[in-house]
Amino acid sequence: IDNIPIKLNAAAILREGALYQRKMEHELKRIENLLRGAGDPSEFLEWQKQMRGKDLEEQLAEIECRRLQGKLSHEEAVLAHQNVIQENKKKADLMREEKAELMHQYAEKRLQEQKEMRELVEQVVEGHKNAKQAKIKLQKYKQQIVQEVCEENRELLRQALEEEEEKLRKRYELIQQIRAIESLPSIRHKFVDLTETGGHGLICEMSIVELRERLALLREAQKAAEEEKRDQIIHEKQAKEQLLLDKLDQISLFRAELGRAAALKQEEKKRKFQPGERSMKDERILNLQKKIVEKTMERKKQAGLL
């Protein structure tokens, strides 16, 4: 187990062992078909894989073009929005100046109206001054009545609380007396013979000594059954561990073979393709990237002006 590079649990070992077993059966079936004269579909599958790779590259290039076009449209929209903001700013400055002039005129008009209202209010205040003093006297009289009523209610509440405390004290004393009577120990003496039966006239009636012996026999039988079950579990566990060890050996062999096969396949791919061969970008992508850079610089310049 220490030679395995990755630590696996029992379920993972069994899953991987079953996977490699299915692969081995598939490979044996393929070899058997080849021996019978059937063709090897690996070359066709490799060509199909290459064609799919080319289609995928074309799709990715098309997706990249669409993404760059969207980004270019976004930059143009942002630039147009900045131009609109600049025009609105000029209009807002003009409207702010006109509004300031109107506010100045409105302020002068309001000052004149406030002056006239102040004079009118002074005349009205003189008329209401006497009514205000009478209202203050009435309020003080009401407050005095409320204070007297509160003091009377407080005295009644104090008397009620004292009566309730007296009732609770008497009830607590009565409960204490009852508990003291109940706590007195009751002394009972009775001799018990453990070898005698209960005398109920039953056939299966046994004494306490016989019951204890029967219980001891049952415990010994239960202990023997548990020991047997424990031994069975240990044997099953050892068999399972041996199975896992065999699976691990098989998995190690399969991994080594798959690694060698992958290395051989990689070497074959390197021989097929030249080392200096690279995929060039589409001309459309380069043009779109150039336009995006130009629009971005123009947008940043416009943002600096704003």
Class based on secondary structure composition and strand pairing? mainly alpha
Give the helix level as a range of percent: over 70%
Tell me the distance between the termini: 70 Å
Sheet with the most strands? none
Mean model confidence by pLDDT:
80
What best-fitting shape do the alpha-carbon axes yield? Answer: flat
Oligomeric status of the shown chains?
Answer: single chain
CA radius of gyration? 51 Å
Let me know the number of strands.
0
Total number of helices: 4
Give, in order, the helices and strands: HHHH
Q: Which ranges are low-confidence, i.e. pLDDT below 50, for 5 or more consecutive residues?
A: 274-280
- Relative strand content: under 5%
